[in-house]
Amino acid sequence: MQIPRLFPLPMLALLASCAAQADPARGRTGSGSDTGTTQTDSGSLDTGAADTAADTAADTTEDTTEDTTPAGPTIEIATWNTARFFDRICDSGRCDAGQDDYEELPSAAQFQYKASQLATGITRQDADIMLLQEVESQDCIDALVAALPAGRWPVAVLGETGFDASVDVAVLANGELVDVIRHRNVPLPLAGGGSTTFTREFLEVELLIQGRPVTVFSAHFRSKSNDDPARRLAEARGAAAIVAASAAASPDALVVLGGDLNDTPDSEPLLSLTSPGILVRVASDIVPNDWTYAFNSQRDAIDHLLIATTASGGYVAGSATVFRDATGGLLTSDHASLRASFYLP
Fold first, then answer.
1. Pairing between strand 74-85 and 129-135?
2. Cα angle vertex 55, ends 49, 56, to 5°?
3. Which of 29, 70, 226, 276 is packed most tightly, with the most Cβ within 10 A?
4. Per the domain annotation, does 57 fall within a domain?
5. CA separation (Å) from 168 to 69, 128, 132?
6. Half-sphere exposure of 205 (CA within 13 A, CB side)
């Protein structure tokens, strides 16, 4: 399904400035990363089919999208924040849990356990594409791939930012890799003047799956820990422009953005992604069971999948599923995972 491509004037101006950037050099300091606690595995898996009575009132302020795409081949795409998957090298030189240091230095057994638990979660979801967040390094990706079923996800791409103790984004995919484009250094205008950049890599991966073109973006916007809402809003606006440009350049592809966007559907950053109508949040049809993160008894949908309506393919209505266990997260992560099915072009 293809919809005429209409871009508001502010977005057109930003599109002109959003050229893909080269990887930054290694050795920069600071992480700009989330803090949080690691949850333990409860041994059970909740796919979001039921919830408490307090959550049964649907959010009537959010529109759902009628799926008119003809039935055809489908794939599953999921997004999951793995929760501080650190490797066995203390890059920051500050890895003392007793001093409340951010970076963790796991033992060999702890590192392998984390990789094994993440592999279990990924295998359970059985998605064709996994968009991951909070993966520190290539060593982590290599350990994860080694723990997964051989050959199931032959494409593994890390969006390394180059900061000490960075927790980065990644993409695992069952398909053929076509191209990788990194947008970390794209200037993002701030509402009050000046500019910023993406907190982490905004990773674009082009694939062929069953011979069909698919483009995915793995994102992790600014955390609300030591909050900088202006930067998160700039990230959302920049991401919307970059995805719109990708969809315009590849109208025959399925184009999907996913990740931990650290804000709720009614927030200004999310509305800046969805209000132009180019991106649609697919989990809007499972409200109120779309929550992916719980903190102090508050449940929020902050991990999202959005499809570009100006490209091809489509969302399989009602297919969005949240994978969580009794902790509210999934296995060793404090985040649940969100998966949905999409029609291939």
1. parallel
2. 75
3. 276
4. no
5. 34, 20, 8
6. 29
Do the bridges between strand 212-220 and strand 203-209 make them parallel or antiparallel, or are there none, so unpaired? antiparallel
Residue 240's domain spans which residues? Answer: 72-343
Query: CATH no. for residue 296?
Result: 3.60.10.10
Question: Which value, in Å, is the radius of gyration of the alpha carbons in the chain?
Answer: 19
0.85 cut: is pTM over it?
no
Tens of pLDDT, residue by residue over 82-111, are: 999 999 999 899 998 888 888 899 999 999
CA distances from 271 to 63, 80, 277 (A): 12, 21, 10
Q: How far apart are CA 331 and CA 131, in angstroms?
A: 17
Residue 249 maps to a domain: yes
Per-position DSSP letters for 117-149, written without gaps between them: HHHHHHHHHT-SEEEEEEE--HHHHHHHHHHSP
Is 282 within a domain?
Answer: yes
Domain tally for the chain? 1
